[in-house]
Amino acid sequence: MELNELTAISPIDGRYSNSTKFLRNIFSEFSFLKYRLNVEIQWLKKIIHMHQILEIKNIENTEILFLDNILEKFNEEDAISIKNIEKETNHDIKALEYFLRKKISKSKKLLPFLEFVHFSCTSEDINNIAYALMIKNARDEIILPLWKKILRFLKNASFKYKDNSLLSMTHGQPATPSTMGKEMANFYYRMQRQYHKLKKIEILGKMNGTTGNYNAHLAAYPKVDWHTISKEFIVSFGISWNPYTTQIEPHDYIVEFFGCMSLFNNILIDFNRDIWGYISLNYFKQKSKNQEIGSSIMPHKINPIDFENSEGNLGLSNALMNHMMNKLPISRWQRDLSDSTVLRNIGVAFSYSIIAYNSVLSGTNKLKINTAQLLKNLNNNWSVLSEAIQTVMRRYKIENAYEKLKQLTRGKEIKKINIHQFIEKLNIPKIEKERLKKLSPSNYIGAASQIIDGIK
């Protein structure tokens, strides 16, 4: 059976491939090989540029271009060649090294540098930088732009719905009103914090040999400051240098990265569930398309499937990331291989999140607020004003204010007339009575509308 969107085992490459196929440029096996080939070539170029320090022959820029072209022209045929070599070596990085040596051997001027391919490197010197670049590119090119789209919706919705009063629900029970805009602003502020945090997380790399001490480097060139060379090489990729490692970069930054990402995802799950609830309460209607079907048997339905899809995929993504956060910082002594297969699933964790982000963006585009239903629910719950009334009573030192409002409202159907009759009997200034009588469930929203103006 030929592999395609219908025959793929994972829905990432099957059902949801339209949302994830651009990730293949970062996380596919082909792309992983290309990232690692780039690191090998850049390290060889670094060695060549150190020709005076290492007392080796210099070469012309045309040969540097020859090396660059190996990377630029890297194609699926080359990738297959590496995989065929790996069948013999049973070692992926050694297969990559042999492939690169074979390519370089076609240039006579580069032949003297053949033994400097993968010079003093352990496999993890190559792998850790490749993963760092993959994560950096995924963050900058895909994750942050999608987060920004979600944040843009939330910010716009905050202002769009700032005056749409909302009956709040605490413990699932009617509570002090807010506005739909303020509730959107709450999510905007929370997610925006994670956006700025993810943007600032340092992505680390190391290039220091088999146990992090430049043993082989110094055996060959004992007078060279390899520690400084390592730093120069790492920062040249636009990532940060980790000077203290074992054989592996310890992956702490990946834990920080996924910690931030999974928190954003949890906030988004919270948002999905709230919107799902508001749709259920008919606070939001969903724009329908004639061709779309909500239920295979109930023609009237428009299900909130985008928010449900988003919630489910966020859960899958977080499950993978949580495992990685627990696993990756731990390695037996100077190195074990249990992190290798886990790291290969970073793209899978990203994929489920990206499916979820696209789903929630699709869902938000279909939302249309139902102001009539919002007002109806508010007008059916005059008892929420008991909070305001008993607080004013306390201001005027009326004893047992809370208990008196409890006796009036608890477990009873309260109308506007009941509230006004209670207010009229209060021993408070007339002006305060008039002010309280002007309150209604729809305008008892505090500063909900005003404080939205402070969001950035």
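(ticket continues) Second input and output from the same batch:
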Amino acid sequence: HTNGSDSASVRGAEVYYHREKPQDKPLADSILCGMREVIHALPGYESFPVRAESVAEGHGENRIGTMPSVIVETAYHSNPEDVAALQDPVFRSAAMKGVEKGYRLWATGKSCEPLTLAPIADVEIPTQSAREIELGYQGNPQYPVTIEFTSASCSKPGACTPTRTLFEDPTKPIRAELTCKGSSPGVARWSVVLRDADGVATPPVVFQHSCVQV
């Protein structure tokens, strides 16, 4: 649905479950969490209001359903900012991707949690060699995902090349190869971000990659 209010200042996404069916609240909360994650990943919608918790009400639409059932109110058609969002197909798509994600996580018994990269330990690699590292994460990204390495600092200007690598198989670990191609020592600090197919990205994780002579 779209929502409405006598006050034009009321806005945002909300999800309702029936007060006589409290067992439906986990589904409603998971859908809100999915919507929040995907909508807030959109440029321009980072602060779009998405209620933190679902609301118990007595709507007729989900009163007599024997299966888990909730009401999703995507935005308020009585608020000008929400109207602009509702007319944006990118926003509408993100909102429904969030609904799908929240339902999918609930249906498979997974909790909705922020997407974050695990800390990456500093690495020392001998010059003219390479080493592969495995990157861990928490959350439920939509595959395919990309790992983006950007240079936070580099001891040799131009020697630290940004990379962007696509990973399509969620059953396989995410690994990145770090190289020290030259014969001279040097240090790079990398800022690493994981970004999923819905545009959801982790906060950057910074680590140091040193090329050392042995």
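Agent notes: The mean pLDDT is 96. The longest strand covers residues 145-154. Closing as not reproducible unless the customer responds.
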